[in-house]
Hints:
This protein is an all-alpha fold and 214 residues long. The protein has a domain at 67-212: Orthogonal Bundle (Tetracycline Repressor, domain 2). It is 67% helix and 0% strand. The longest helix is centred in the first third of the chain and has 26 residues, at 58-83.
Amino acid sequence: MAAISGGKTYHHGDLRNALICAAVDLATEGGPERVVLREAARRVGVSPTAAYRHFDGRGELLGAVRTHARRELADSMERAAAREPGADDPALAAERRVAALCRGYVGFAVEQPGLYRAAFCVPRRAEAGGPAAERPPTEPEIRAFTLLGEALDALTRRGARQGARVASGAAAWSAVHGLSLLLVDGPLRRLPAQRRNAVVETTLAMVVSGARAL
């Protein structure tokens, strides 16, 4: 999705998409807290009334941004895996793919912290502090976990129990997600690049080692 930069006005027929693009810009700049329907409308040069014809409120707009951010996260993982050199040994190839997917996950968080935060926000309806504007997850939203789970399946032993395989996926995601949060908003955020890379690679080695042991 091409984002609309600040200062441009709306000149075409797809106002809903234009508002989403503006909201993605806002999230990129400052995370989900920056996503406000009125500000998105201002950026594309329409009135708030026009924007409310396409979105019930901030929660719905933020939900659209979250879907976009999760898609971008999965795309980052796939690009990282595509750059990884192959291997004749299937086990080694599986290890490299798991590590590369995790590397793409953490890399997205570090390079796009605002969008990363938006990917895991919980949109709420703006009206009177209403309930969370949740809905069943769609394919773009869960693709990151699916990619990691499939790669771990290829790495684990064929005789591994289904429960153990599911648990390994959750554990691996917890590891890379927790590390990402520490690097984006936690005490590791000020690490110099070399030390940060060392922490990332050590964590990925632990993920691969743990999956291989199943």
